[in-house]
Amino acid sequence: MAxxxxxxxxxxxxxxxxxxxxxxxxxxxxxxxxxRRAAMLMDCLAVLRAAHPAADAAxxxxxxxxxxxxxxxxxxxxxxxESDDGLGTLCLFDEDGLVxxxxxxxxxxxxxxxxxxxxxxSWPRLRAEQEERRLYEILRRLDPHEYRRARALLAESPAxxxxxxxxxxxQLWMRFDFFEAVSDWPWCHLDGWWYPCPTCxxxxxxxxxxxxxxxxxxxxxxxxxxxxxxxxxxxxGAAPLLVGTGxxxxxxxxxxxxxxxxxxxxPVWRYxxxxxxxxxxxxxxxxxxxxxxxxxxxxxxxxxEYDLKITLSPPGRRTSYFRVDAKAWESVDxxxxxxxxxEPTPYPLIILLPNHQEHEVEFxxxxxxxxxxxxxTLKRLVARIEKAAGGVR
Length: 393
What we know:
The protein has three domains: 3-121, no CATH class; 158-264, no CATH class; 267-389, no CATH class. The chain is globular. Helix 12 (361-367) links the parallel strand 13 (349-353) and strand 14. The chain has helices at 3-28, 34-51, 54-57, 62-68, 102-109, 114-119, 123-140, 144-156, 162-169, 266-286, 332-341, 361-367, 378-389; strands at 159-161, 179-181, 193-194, 205-209, 212-216, 226-229, 242-244, 255-256, 261-264, 292-296, 308-312, 320-326, 349-353, 373-377. With 393 residues, the chain is α+β, with helices and mostly antiparallel strands. The chain has 13 helices and 14 strands.
C-alpha cells in the first residue's frame, strides 16, 4: 500500500476511534439529557460513517452503532492492512455494561482532553482541540532553533504552491502534516481561484450575495481586509480581479484552487498562525524602544506557557518582566474555560488579545479573577510599555 494511502487509513482509523470514545462517554453518562445524548451519538455516527468506505457506511444505523459500542472495537474501526495495533480487541465497556477506565487512557493518548469527555464537546470543537494539541506536541519535540524557525514559518508560509511551501519549510516539512489541498475548500473558491489574505496569507472566504461577491479574511475583516469582485473583464484563463473595500485591502492576486496549492488546516491557522502574527506585531511595535528587550518564543519552555518575554530595565529602576501569551480565539468565553483548565502559572502572565476584541477584555478579566493573569490588547500593552520605558527610541 502506498505511503499516502497508509496515512489516510491511519487518519480515518484514529477519527473512528475518537468518535467511539466520545460516543461511549455519552452513553455512560446517566445524567446527560436524552436529546443531548442523541445529538452526540448522531455526531459520532456521522464521523464513523465518513471513516469507512461508502458501501460499508450505508449499513450503519443508530441501533447498530450503539450495540457495537459494547463489543470489541474491531466491529467499528476501519480494517487495517498493517500489523495489528491491538485496538481491534479492546472493549470500551466491561461485562457489567460500565465504561472501562481504559477509555480515559485512549483519549489521553490520542490528544482528547478529559474535559471533552466530561462536558461532551461537539465534534468540530474536539477536532480543533486535537489539532492544536497535536501542533504543540510537535513543537515541543523541536530543539530551540527549530522551534523558533517553525513558529516564524507559521506566519510566513501558511499557504501557497506546494513547491514553494516545501522549499520554505525545508527539513521541517515532513514533521508538519497539517497542510490540506485548497481544492478541497469550496468556501474560498472564486471561479477556480483563491486569494491569500494580505495580512495572514491564508485563503480568504468568498461570500456571494444577491448581485455581488465579497472576498474577505475572517480574522482580519475588522482591520479592513475585504474586497468586492471587479466588474472589469479579464483575459481568458486569468483570475478575476478584486477591488479593495477596506482600509487594509492591499492588492491581491488570485492563485489556482488546485491540488498543487496547500494551506494549513483551519485549527492551526486559528490557534497557531494568528497568535504568531500577533506576537510578531508586538515585537515590531516595541522594536528600538530604549531599555526594552524582547525575547520571542523561549525555546526552553513548554510552547503553550508564554510566547514573549519582555524585559524592561530603565536606569535607576527595578527591572520588570512581562510574560505574554498571545491568543486569537473567536470566543473569549471558550478561551476563559481553556485558561481555567490549565495549571496556574507560578508567575504573572499577560494574555494578549487582538485590538478588535478590546470590548471583551473586561469579560475575560472577570472570568479569570483570582488567577495571576492580566488581560489586555496589543494597543494597550504597547502604550503601557512605551510609557514605562519613557517612550525613547
